[in-house]
Amino acid sequence: MFDTAYKHSLMPLVVGLALAALPGLSQADHSWGGYHWARTTAEFTLKLGNNLTTDDWRLLLSQASSDWNSPELFGAASTPLLTSIVTGQSKRNCSMVKGTTQVCNAKYGAIGWLGLASINITGGTHITQGTAKMNDTYFNLATYNNPYEKQHVMCQEIAHTFGLDHQSEDGSSQNSCMDYFSNTGDNAGSSLSTRPNAHDFEELATIYDHTDSTTTVAASTTTAPSAADVDITDDPRSWGMLVRQSTNGRSSIYERFNRDGSRTLTHVYWTIEAATNCPSCDHRYVKT
């Protein structure tokens, strides 16, 4: 699938070589690197561009957006980050659009991942734009094609673009979509871990406990797509360097430095099959 320059990646990755294994237990702090949208008000609204092609995905996005806008349903008092669904501007390729998160689904190919979230970073920690992708190549298969697994992944991928990381990555349920419980197999009928919980809103309050002098959040729905060189493509090599991976191999983070001085970070949720095949490998270069 890839050229010979990448054959070395078939070997298990050594933890000491630029990889830090992520803890499997629930984390007291599940901010994603302190990344956050710059904004000048205590509360702000992030636009979610709806590029989804089927009614079921659109309904799942609507449910996820409603959940993230309803902290009181989950035992939290408030949230600094509200969401608003707007017409998408990216379609299949899910190009970034400044100040927004674009949400997409497509048959991205049998390349090992279920869900993928990317954010563009400037000024060290400020998110300027994001994308969340769902891979129908796998969600069309019986293993993953159920509403609870889809809701889990939709809820999680858009929340990564808020600046949230995982509460847990060992497969246990914290009853948060920010864990790695799998709503498949014997759990296919379970609604656990398909929505936020109170701790997710507590973490958002911590991440956004300050205001900024400027904003990176789009004020209108007519923002133009970003320059193409900050986007990732269907080729996993465009993600950049693997910088972190969970012990069980289901979660990876990649980082790429862009020509404009920004960074693009990508959170990847791998299939069960990709992770089981070689948990410590960079799954981009291992056939499943």
Give the helices and strands as they follow along the chain: EEEHEEEEHHHEEEH
Give average pLDDT, whole number: 89
Q: Largest sheet at a glance?
A: 10 strands, mixed
As a percent range, the share of helical residues equals 10-25%
Question: Remind me, CATH topology?
Answer: Collagenase (Catalytic Domain)
Query: Total number of β-strand segments?
Result: 10
End-to-end Cα distance, whole Å, is: 11 Å
**CATH architecture label:** 3-Layer(aba) Sandwich
- Rounded radius of gyration (Å): 18 Å
Strand content: 15-25%
> What is the general shape?
globular
Walk me through the structure:
The protein is of the alpha/beta class and 288 residues long. The protein has one domain: Collagenase (Catalytic Domain), CATH 3.40.390.10. It contains five helices and ten strands. Strand 6 (113-122) and strand 7 form a beta hairpin. Mean pLDDT is 89; it is low at 1-28.
Summarize the entry for a quick read:
17% of the residues lie in helices and 23% in strands. The protein contains 5 helices and 10 strands; from the N terminus they run βββαββββαααβββα.
